[in-house]
Amino acid sequence: MFYILWVVSFVSFLLDTHASSCDENCADKPVFTPPTVVVKYGDSISVTCSACQSGCNDEQTGLENPVGDKTKNGTTILWTVDRMTEWDINVFCYHSNASDYQCCSLLPLTVYKPPDSVSISFDGPSGPMFEGHQYTLQCKVQNVAPVGDLTVTFYRGQTALGQAKSTNDLKKPVNETFTLSVNTSKEDDGVQYWCEGKLELGSEGPQPPLLVKSENITSTVLYKPQLEGPSHPEPIVVTEGNPLQLNCSAVGNPSPSYTWTLPLADFSSSNSSTLVFTSVTSRNEGQYTCHVSNTLGAIDVTFNVVVKGLLTSTTSPPTTTTSATTAPATTAPATTAPATTAPSSSSSSSSSSILIYRFIMCFMLLISVVV
Ligand SMILES: *[C@@H]1O[C@H](CO)[C@@H](O)[C@H](O)[C@H]1NC(C)=O
Ligand SMILES: *[C@@H]1O[C@H](CO)[C@@H](O)[C@H](O)[C@H]1NC(C)=O
Ligand SMILES: *[C@@H]1O[C@H](CO)[C@@H](O)[C@H](O)[C@H]1NC(C)=O
Ligand SMILES: *[C@@H]1O[C@H](CO)[C@@H](O)[C@H](O)[C@H]1NC(C)=O
Ligand SMILES: *[C@@H]1O[C@H](CO)[C@@H](O)[C@H](O)[C@H]1NC(C)=O
Ligand SMILES: *[C@@H]1O[C@H](CO)[C@@H](O)[C@H](O)[C@H]1NC(C)=O
Ligand SMILES: *[C@@H]1O[C@H](CO)[C@@H](O)[C@H](O)[C@H]1NC(C)=O
Known about the structure:
The protein has about 375 residues and is mainly beta.
């Protein structure tokens, strides 16, 4: 029993010293043709080794090949493998002299495997993202070898965002996840992200290099309302009888809702970004506020409308009259209601109604005290 163990360890000792006594920095090194081999897992290989160039004993030349077959012809050795199914093997070709000194070359051999799949996702819980936050894109590459030759590129639409490489030097296939941080802005809403794995195996490898793309993912970014159009002149001066359009169009996700506050504290219930008057009168003068909101925030846009009477407009130069719009009445898509539903009471009549209201309140108080 001990004898067998001793023999086994002695043999492995011999095999170890055999490899370690091999000098790769000698003159007249064995030469492989082709000089480097890049083979897809499962494919065949055929390489010849010329053990020495300036003469050596063909009895003392050889090839160490863990797999495949070899054929010797003088100092030339042919190594063939029908189906390469090893990931990490060392193939040496050598010649030695009488004192067992070995001069050898190691065959640069790469066994590769394109990824089974490349997929992209955002780290963390799925669902919409928020503007101004940092998120991590992850690109999962499955069953690729050698991962050290893989470069992953992240894309936003057609724009490359960045690249990632593995630090792993394993020759067997691995699964690896590559990441990239992105900061979201409103421009990222509805944008497509994808990633691509590229195996770069040098000039002996497949040309062009192997590419595997992921599917697209569409990002949803929630953001508070932001005004679309340019800011309007202040105040908006419009001549009586002319049309007027007030526009506070905004973008946001979720889609914003609009509420208008008209002069004389009247509310418009219409959920429209524009307010259209086909023909303004002096009653349309005053301050309009457009309240734009969604679940993430709100903005108020104020329009101060000054209506010029026809008489005053003829005495003043026409260039000072500013109209906020040129929209014809027939194509106006938005509400025209405020022009007709605006309270007809003047400011003096509304203040007198407040006086009457206060008087009634005082009277009722008096009665309740007496009772
Ligand atoms: C061995 O090599 C020589 C010279 O390169 C060639 O002429 C000969 O045909 C080869 N023999 C075999 C069996 O391949
Ligand atoms: C074999 O080569 C080695 C290294 O060049 C040298 O030191 C040694 O003397 C050689 N032996 C013979 C028998 O030529
Ligand atoms: C992903 O989107 C990009 C641009 O947005 C497009 O060019 C590409 O064809 C899409 N890929 C797939 C797999 O749909
Ligand atoms: C890679 O992932 C796949 C699917 O999850 C799994 O079947 C496979 O065993 C993994 N491979 C390695 C090397 O971990
Ligand atoms: C994202 O924002 C953080 C903090 O504001 C910043 O440190 C980081 O550099 C940004 N990253 C990118 C890719 O713009
Ligand atoms: C309101 O303004 C926006 C941005 O300028 C514009 O896209 C939109 O067509 C305008 N709406 C109307 C009804 O004119
Ligand atoms: C207003 O319109 C937007 C977009 O059409 C919609 O998402 C929103 O729910 C509406 N708001 C109200 C209060 O009806």
